Structure formats: structure tokens, C-alpha cells
Structure prediction request, 154 residues.
Amino acid sequence: MTNSILIVLHLLSAVIWVGGMLFAHRFLRPVAASQLEPPQRLPLWNGVFAGFFPFVWAIILILPLTGYAMMFGIWGGFANAPLYVHVMNGLGTVMIIIFLHVYFSPYQKLRNAVSTQDWPAGGQALNRIRAMVGWNTILGLIVIAIASGGRYLG
Prediction:
């Protein structure tokens, strides 16, 4: 696969993931919280995550595969890669770990709470997801800034 295709796949994956988190966290969440009670809000979020998370699963496979392919294809490995590439790799790894935790812990609790209509437990799970998605959004924006300007930072 050529470097240009790898870069396009890598960037589109990052933008879809981070853009989806930014939209959900900064725009959808405040409106849903102000207009919907838990019996409506929690199933909405459960549905949003059920639609978005399959994309994130694909993305967390595409990003490392394309990133490491470029790491070895462009720089010949980790030793020759510039610092900004290592920072992106580290922060991206942290983001993937956060997603895995969200998916396997609070998201599963949210799903169970919605299925049993346990709105307090669902609210707790959603608050946990909200906090972690907030951090992942910040990390994602930092990674995008590093990716777009890193080679110019010296």
C-alpha cells in the first residue's frame, strides 16, 4: 500500500473517531441532558454508542496498522522516526486503552441498565463514559494538532 493511501486512511480514521467524540460530548450530550429524562436519554445514548462503537473498533485496528506501516515504510522503524511520531504513537495507545475500558466496563453497565430499566445505574455508567470520552476527545485533538504540525515544531 502506498504511503499516500496509508496517510489518507490514517487521517480519515482519526478525524472520524475524534470528530464523533467531539460531536457527542460537546453538542449532543448537553441537549440530551437538558431535554430528556433518563428513561429517554439513556436508551438514546445506548443506541448512539451501538452505532458509533463498531466504527471505533475498525478505527482502532486501522490506526495502528497504518501508523506502523508508515513508521517502517517512511522512517525504517522506531529508531529513525521523529519525536512527534513517537508522541502520536503514545497518545494514540492511551486513547485505545481508554476506549477499551469504556467499551468493556461502563458501556456494558449502561447496556445492562437500559435493558433492566435501572436508570440510576445507567446514569452512573453514562457519567463515567462522559468523563472518559471527554479526556479521549482532548487527547485526540492534541494528536491531530501534533500530526498536522509536528514536523514543523523543530
